[in-house]
Each structure stands twice: as C-alpha cells, then as structure tokens.
Amino acid sequence: MTFPNAPIASTEPPRTSRTGLGIGLMLLGFMFFSITDATAKILTRDFEPFQIAWFRQLGLLTIATWIVATRGRSVFRTARPVLQIGRGMAAALSASAFIFAVGYVPLADATAVSFVAPFVVTILAAVVLRETVGIRRWTAVTIGFIGTLIVIRPGLGLFHPAIFVVLAAASLFAVRQILSRVLGPVDRTITTIVYTAISSVVLLTIPTILVWQTPTSLRQVLLILLIACTAGIGEFLIIRALELAQAATLAPLQYTMIIWSTGLSWLLFSQLPDAWSLIGAAIIMVSGIYTLHRERLAARQRRQANGA
C-alpha cells in the first residue's frame, strides 16, 4: 500500500483539537492513497517500478515544498540527519517494492498483507529499541501473522511469489516507523516529512534514469499526473488530520485501505478476494488494531515513567 511520509504513530500533540474533522480528513487521505496504489498497478503495464515510485514521490515532494514555503527553512533543522536520510531511503525502497508486487498480485491481497507492518514494528521495538513487549502484544502479533498466512496460502494454486515482496515492503515501512520513534523526541514531524520526501526522490532518481521510458500517450501522461496528485493530496490530508486529532485515534483508520483497495480491485481489475482472503484480512485488521491499542498504552506508560 502507499505508506504516508507523515509518521502516523507520531507522539507530537495536535495543534488543535477537532477530532471529528481529523477523522474525516484521515479517511479521505487513505482513500486517495488507495487510488494511488490502483494507478500504480495500471502503470506497471508500461513502466518500471522505480520510475512509477519516482512519479509518486514527486507528488509528496510537492507537499514538502509547500511545508517549507509556509513554515520556513527552520524545518531543515534536525538533530539526526543520517537517520532522516535513512528513513527516506526506506520510503523509496518500500514504495518500489510494493509497486513491483502489485504488478503480479491482486491489489486487495497486497494491501491486506502489507498490514503485517505493525507486527514487524512490535518485533523491531523489542529487539532494536529494547522495549518490553507483553504477552498480549506477542499474542496479537502471532495471530496477525496467522492471518497473513491465510491470505498468502503458500503452496496453493493462487499463490504468487511476488507476495513476499509485499512482506519486504511492509518490513521496510516498519523500519521507517522505528526510525520515527527515534526521531520523534528530537525532530518535528514536518521535518521528518520534508527529509523523507527529498531523500526518497533523490535516491529514486538514479535507478529511474537507468530504466527511464518516456510517456508516449495522453493516457500515460494522465495516469502519471493522477498518481502524483493523489499521493500529494493524500499526504496533505493526513498531515492536516494529524494537526487536528491525536495520532492514536487516527492510526486504526489506515485499515480502511483494505476496503478501498477491495472496491478498486473489483471496479478496475475485476478481481475480488475469495472467502479465505477476506477471513485472513479480517484477522489482520482485528489483531492489528489491538496491537496499535497496546502500543498506545505502552507509549503512555513510557511518558508517565519519564515524567516521574
């Protein structure tokens, strides 16, 4: 799925408190990101994944330019420039990997499997950040992986190896989230967004030059404009949502992308997930939302301990 540059697990408080509007904007943002993913799948017929990801990131770079124009050059001040650039590299690679995968597997299945990311975040938090993970979160992670296996069903006729590339994309997104946790206490959210957009575009420019194919039809040009615009609008809506409501309230809404992607798969590609895929997706959603809930409680306990 299209992962936002904005760290949706940010602990930075909202600038105002208008939760209802924030929820509405977040839902719209993920709808636009689902359209971005569907457009990427169409473009894989004509262009290489790196080039498509580059087009997509240009839309996000537009939002970064708007942030710099409205907030000033102070957004470039960072305490951890290497980690900021590393987060951008992870963004570029995760976008390219997901786009490659949706060229081979149904969009709805790829989106559902990509939500293994919160479970990978939990594992990385325990291993890398040395966070204490209780039995409830480990249970949710295990159940979530079972749901993922139900969707993937390796060894069966409908299985395609490209689904493992989705897992790689989700793991790279999890790395981004871990870096967001490290950067959160020292850098502003808008700083992270700007660095991620710029560094990902710069990184993708190199392979894009090597595989470049010039658009030759109006249809291709319009699809390129669509993927850039929907990615940019989606990012803008999510940034605004995070300014209006708590990230902990908004984070579970990302699972609506499974609904959007299922509808778009049916409308655009005549692909519908079967019963087992729907069951697996439901398990992933429930265990993922519970994992986010436990993450929120753990974050609250850490803040209370630091304030003590």
Structure keywords:
308 residues; mainly alpha; 74% helix; globular
Your description of this structure?
Keywords: Membrane, Transmembrane, Transmembrane helix. One of its GO terms (cellular component) is membrane. InterPro entries: EamA_dom, EmrE-like. The chain crosses the membrane at residues 21-40, 52-70, 82-104, 110-129, 138-156, 162-179, 191-212, 218-238, 250-269, 275-293. With 308 residues, the chain is mostly helical. The protein has twelve helices and no strands. The protein is globular. The model has no long low-confidence stretch (mean pLDDT 86).
Topology:
Layout: H1 19-43, H2 49-71, H3 81-102, H4 107-114, H5 117-127, H6 135-152, H7 163-183, H8 189-211, H9 218-244, H10 247-250, H11 256-269, H12 275-307
Helix pairs in contact: 1-9, 1-11, 2-3, 2-8, 2-9, 3-7, 3-8, 4-7, 4-11, 5-6, 5-7, 6-12
Protein name: DMT family transporter
Transmembrane segments: 21-40, 52-70, 82-104, 110-129, 138-156, 162-179, 191-212, 218-238, 250-269, 275-293
Keywords: Membrane, Transmembrane, Transmembrane helix
Name the overall outline: globular
| Proportion of beta-strand residues | under 5%
How does the helix and strand content classify structurally?
Answer: mainly alpha
Mean pLDDT: 86
Are there runs of 5+ residues with pLDDT below 50, and where? Answer: none
Written as H for each helix and E for each strand, in order along the chain, the element string is HHHHHHHHHHHH
Organism: Oricola thermophila
Pfam families: EamA (PF00892)
Transmembrane segments: 21-40, 52-70, 82-104, 110-129, 138-156, 162-179, 191-212, 218-238, 250-269, 275-293
InterPro entries: EamA_dom (IPR000620), EmrE-like (IPR037185)
